[in-house]
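Dear H.,

Thanks for agreeing to be a second pair of eyes. The structure we're designing against is below in token form, covering all 205 positions.
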């Protein structure tokens, strides 16, 4: 079982939950991180560009919680000099949600598709608290219809804790999954992962 960063706690039969983020604690940690940054970063803003849309944010807010942005702005990169970053593979509503989370420590509930986009972005920019917040919301929305896609996402991102949760959900609901015909779809879609599911069920019986 894995508990990186102290955010995760165990449940019965190997399931994993992500402890809800305490906003005040998050903001205090953010303030402490910002104090350690160079003054120039605290004073400067950057334009994050997606197509023709622009979102402006303080560099320190990005650097305090994202190692990717921190390296970007503290190294001699073009973005650091021009104060402009072009964001690829992310929609503006998702970027706004990311920035809002960095500023407040709160991720509003949304549908599974949107949360998966936020999850991808949190992983891309290495924002662990946002990743955990996404996982916490997604775990509350898992169903026999969407669990396989969430499992595939966890595997593609090498997210072992999220993967274990999805595997355990499948194990606990396997009869229903068989009855409604989802299993055959999984076998046709990605038999390698389906066989891994069977191995997990065998180990946990």
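And this is the sequence the design step returned. I haven't edited it by hand at all.
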């Amino acid at each position: 079982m894995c508990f990186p960063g102290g955010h995760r706690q165990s449940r019965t039969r190997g399931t994993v939950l992500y402890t809800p983020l305490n906003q005040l604690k998050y903001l205090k940690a953010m303030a402490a991180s910002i104090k350690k940054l160079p003054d120039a970063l605290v004073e400067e803003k950057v334009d994050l560009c997606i197509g023709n849309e622009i979102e402006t944010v303080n560099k320190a807010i990005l650097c305090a919680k994202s190692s990717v942005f921190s390296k970007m702005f503290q190294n001699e990169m073009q973005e650091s000099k021009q104060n402009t970053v072009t964001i690829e593979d992310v929609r503006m509503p998702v970027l706004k949600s990311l920035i809002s989370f960095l500023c407040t420590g709160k991720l509003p509930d949304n549908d599974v598709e949107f949360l998966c986009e936020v999850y991808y972005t949190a992983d891309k920019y290495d924002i662990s608290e946002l990743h955990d917040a996404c996982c916490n919301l997604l775990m509350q929305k898992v169903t026999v219809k969407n669990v396989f896609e969430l499992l595939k996402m966890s595997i593609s991102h090498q997210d072992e804790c999220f993967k274990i949760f999805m595997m355990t959900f499948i194990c606990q609901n396997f009869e229903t999954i068989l009855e409604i015909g989802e299993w055959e779809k999984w076998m046709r879609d990605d038999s390698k992962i389906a066989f891994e599911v069977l191995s997990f069920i065998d180990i946990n019986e």
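Two observations from my side: The chain is about 60% helix and 10% strand. Residues 109 and 137 are 7 Å apart (CA to CA).

Warmly,
E.
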